[in-house]
Amino acid sequence: MSVGIVLVSHSSKLAEGLAELAAQMAPDVTIVAAGGLSDGSIGTDYDEVVAATQRADSGAGVVLLYDLGSAQMTAELAVESLADPSAAVVADGPLVEGAIAAAVAAQAGQDRKAVAEAAAAAGLPEDLEPAEATAGGDEVELVLHNEVGLHARPAAVLVRALSAFDAEVSVRLGDQEADGHSVLALMSLGARQGDRIRVRARGPQASAALDKAKELVDGNFGE
User: Fold this and answer.
1) CATH code for the structural domain at 129-222
2) What is the pTM of this model?
3) Helix orientation angle between 46-56 and 69-80, rounded to the nearest 10 degrees
4) For the residues of 180-208, what is the DSSP string, one character each?
């Protein structure tokens, strides 16, 4: 089982669209949209958020994200009303980026605390390091042939795969290098079809991590 995610928004269309997007990167995670009022107008519905939180919980807990201030209050009240309030937590992070980061973390099997931290960290700037700053370790050079390059879904696929290895992994494009365990950092590289990237790994399973990265790139990330 994985941590569930609830997206609390004033807009039902926003919540549903984001849930659809996040599900593309985390197909095994329960992501429930709780947006708008029951009549379809703008606002947040306490009862709907409570019900969404209950639906999202498969036993590993739930992380709730929100868009605006009053949605935060609704989410917090919903958590407090649960039979076990400790089973859910409201993450203080950006709704869109946080939902993506949380979904990928949940898909990777991380616990509720780690998923909430991933959502919160998505609000922080993603620093792209100079390539020479992380010298050392094994390295492989790969060419991206898939249509969209290293963007949302491919980046999520790569992060999920690399999380299974005991290795620090980074991906370099030109003179910039990003953390191979961060979807947002990888997307920030802007790697496109035809670009040549270098994947560097350090740690006990560095070689296996690089083999997996090569497998995914050669297979166009399953596209």
Assistant:
1) 3.30.1340.10
2) 0.73
3) 60
4) TT-HHHHHHTT--TT-EEEEEEESTTHHH
Q: Which of 10, 145, 151, 181 is catalytic?
A: 10
Is 145 one of the annotated active-site residues of the chain?
A: no
Residues of the chain with CATH 3.30.1340.10: 129-222
The C-alpha atoms of residue 213 and residue 223 are separated, in whole angstroms, by 15
Considering the chain, tell me which residue range(s) the CATH 3.40.50.510 domain(s) occupy. 4-121
Can you give the pLDDT of all 223 residues of the chain as single tens digits? 899 999 999 999 999 999 999 998 899 999 999 999 999 899 999 999 999 999 999 999 999 999 988 999 999 999 999 999 999 999 998 999 999 999 999 998 999 999 999 999 886 655 555 555 444 579 999 999 998 898 888 998 999 899 889 999 999 999 899 999 888 888 889 999 999 999 999 999 999 999 999 999 999 998 7
Domain 4-121, second-level architecture: 3-Layer(aba) Sandwich (3.40)
